[in-house]
Amino acid sequence: MKEPSPTKQGDKRYALLMAARDSDYVKKAYGGYFNVFLAAFAEQGERWDLFRVVDGEFPDVDDLHCYDGFVVSGSPYDAYGNDKWILKLCFLLQTLDSMKKKVLGICFGHQVLCRALGGKVGKAMTGWDIGLRRVKIVSGRFLEDLSQMPPSLSIIECHQDEVWEVPSGAEVIAFSEKTGVEMFAIGDHILGIQGHPEYTKDILCSLIERLLNNNCIEVIKIK
């Protein structure tokens, strides 16, 4: 069991709940997905701990109060699956919600947050969405303090599942032509994002290559 890392008083402490295993490319180029997330989200003075929930490694319930927030990563697994670790993750997310802990869910994390808190997820009605997607931002309570938020933004996407119905009390704060729920929020502590703000172009290209090699997707030639 991993123990929370010691921090100085006043330092922020976060936990990354990793729902995917490192790809060979990411291990070679970045040293693992943990470093990718640190580069995208971590700020100086913060402490981040890694829990590989996909392998059954979870924070101890008695340590949850030590953290200022949690991030749930993407995953090749289905958020609506009944693997033991996914069900345990759902219970953890319900606990964090009841504690009003800040939680950010990305791709799979976005979907499993929705499922855990009472929403519905499943296969995307229009199939895979891979590449750069323009999403439109909807004003709401979660964005009240973000006066500089643009009306739309572009984000890297790679998913074949989606949120069908958000949990009770949630608000949809972004959508696209491809996906009806690109982002949702509950209060000021829960945020789900279907896209991958942590991805870089090279990570996406490597992922596309793996999907093609594994026959998960195919190239359609337009004559």
TrEMBL record:
<protein>
    <recommendedName>
        <fullName>Glutamine amidotransferase domain-containing protein</fullName>
    </recommendedName>
</protein>
<dbReference type="GO" id="GO:0019760">
    <property type="term" value="P:glucosinolate metabolic process"/>
</dbReference>
<dbReference type="InterPro" id="IPR044992">
    <property type="entry name" value="ChyE-like"/>
</dbReference>
<dbReference type="GO" id="GO:0008233">
    <property type="term" value="F:peptidase activity"/>
</dbReference>
<dbReference type="InterPro" id="IPR017926">
    <property type="entry name" value="GATASE"/>
</dbReference>
<comment type="similarity">
    <text>Belongs to the peptidase C26 family.</text>
</comment>
<dbReference type="InterPro" id="IPR029062">
    <property type="entry name" value="Class_I_gatase-like"/>
</dbReference>
<keyword id="KW-0378">Hydrolase</keyword>
<dbReference type="GO" id="GO:0005829">
    <property type="term" value="C:cytosol"/>
</dbReference>
<comment type="pathway">
    <text>Secondary metabolite biosynthesis.</text>
</comment>
<feature type="domain" description="Glutamine amidotransferase">
    <location>
        <begin position="58"/>
        <end position="200"/>
    </location>
</feature>
<keyword id="KW-0963">Cytoplasm</keyword>
<dbReference type="Pfam" id="PF00117">
    <property type="entry name" value="GATase"/>
</dbReference>
